[in-house]
Design brief:
elongated; alpha/beta; Rossmann fold; 3 domains
């Protein structure tokens, strides 16, 4: 849980911050003295410090200085005050605070600030799960970066002396930190090789060269950022987090895009392909069959007496049966086979590279598995009928029409059977 330590003498602002913390599911600890705050920082995991300017035993400047001198220097500090002095702001920012919030702010404005700080902490947590590669032939620079990562509890970094060693490892990383000047393969070559391979990882170049032409060239060939040596620890981490934030956002958008794509072709109830997409896939398989002279078969299935199931046991139970039958279909076919809900209680199964005899084996397997479905409903039984057709220069429309005709024949002949052309 995200923990906030609040140094404040005003009961009103304690109440405001306490309510905001509860709403954001944060742990809230309030104290009114520097001494108390330092004891808590030393014994508990604190993610954010909010401090008023004036405290019971002095002002916040001495407290911030003590934090900066301690092992807790990485905890972000925000000053929360009614004093809007520009000079005080300058002093506080010189001490390393991350923000300065006026007590004239509304509770909603304060809440938005807390959300932003909390979001920054979530970036840090996600950063710890990303794989990092550092490629630098300077043992001192590798040591410095290792110390920075250790300071921020990052344990997922691997270190390489050369590009050859990096690529020989065969590993892929979310973040590459690459020195520009290397003895063998240059940093520029590493960047170009990564980008030409299609890598969308974060690439940060580090170098003692700060000429604008060098920086612009490195950014143009595919680096996401350029940090000059020697670098400040906190500034380095801030730049790293900024790049990670963009990287994670792109990944999130890609996942959402994939989910939307899946939703557009999937039947919401049964999670097999929907009517529109199963027919598109049938067109594609017919085209491949004509082109390569392969076999192709389809089976149109229909759940027997499904209207009676709905009427007797209710539509919710009917939905359970539809999902169960779809599950049986998916578990009874190969990876190259295609299953879709044609409509209502009808399912279409496409079997590429399958003769009618081979498809019949699959159809019977499905029919027998459906027969074994049990329920605690009294006298409930379930069966399925099917019409099976092998491709013979059909269009998709005539292919489906022939399968549907055979399905109707199976119904006429007593159900719980597969009719084949």
């Amino acid at each position: 849980m995200y923990s906030i330590l609040h140094l404040e003498t005003s009961s009103l602002y304690r109440k405001i911050l306490s309510d905001i913390s509860e709403e954001l599911n944060c742990k809230y600890i309030a104290v009114d003295s520097c001494e108390e705050a330092l004891k808590i920082v030393a014994t508990e995991n604190i993610d954010l410090i909010l401090t008023a300017m004036e405290l019971e035993d002095g002002n916040s400047i001495s407290f911030i200085k003590k934090i900066n001198e301690s092992e807790s220097t990485s905890i972000p500090i925000v000053v929360f005050t009614g004093n809007d002095s520009a000079e005080d702001r300058r002093i506080m920012f010189d001490l390393g605070i991350i923000d300065y919030i006026s007590k004239k702010s509304t509770p909603e404005e304060i809440k938005k600030s807390i959300i932003a700080y909390k979001s920054e902490d979530e970036i840090s947590q996600k950063l710890d799960k990303l794989k990092i590669a550092v490629c630098d032939d300077s043992s001192m620079d590798r040591f410095i970066l290792e110390r920075i990562f250790k300071m921020y509890s990052i344990k997922t970094a691997d270190f390489y002396e050369s590009g050859e060693e990096l690529f020989t490892s065969g590993k892929e990383y979310d973040i590459y930190i690459v020195d520009l000047i290397l003895r063998k393969m240059s940093g520029k070559s590493i960047i170009m090789k990564l980008r030409s391979s299609g890598s969308e990882s974060v690439i940060i170049t580090i170098s003692g060269i700060d000429h604008f032409k060098t920086v612009s060239n490195v950014l143009m060939i595919g680096a996401d950022d350029y940090i000059t040596k020697p670098f400040n620890n906190e500034l380095f981490m801030a730049r790293l987090k900024t790049n990670v934030r963009s990287y994670l956002l792109v990944k999130q958008l890609e996942r959402q895009s994939e989910e939307l794509k899946k939703m557009s072709v999937t039947d919401g109830l049964t999670q097999v392909y929907n009517h529109k997409f199963i027919l598109e896939r049938l067109d594609q398989e017919i085209h491949k069959t004509r082109r390569h002279a392969h076999k192709l078969s389809i089976i149109m299935f229909d759940i027997d007496h499904f209207k009676s199931v709905n009427d007797t046991y209710g539509h919710q139970f009917g939905d359970v049966i539809l999902r169960k039958v779809a599950e049986i279909l998916m578990n009874s076919v190969r990876d190259i086979d295609i299953v879709g809900r044609y409509g209502g209680e009808e399912f279409l199964v496409i079997l590429p590279e399958s003769s009618s005899e081979e498809a019949m084996v699959v159809a019977e397997r499905i029919r027998l598995r459906v027969l074994k479905v049990k329920s605690n409903k009294t006298e409930f039984s379930l069966s399925i009928s099917g019409g099976l057709v092998e491709f013979d220069n059909h269009t998709s429309a005539t292919f489906v029409k022939d399968a549907d005709m055979l399905l109707y024949k199976a119904k006429q002949n007593g159900r719980n059977r597969i009719e084949i052309m």
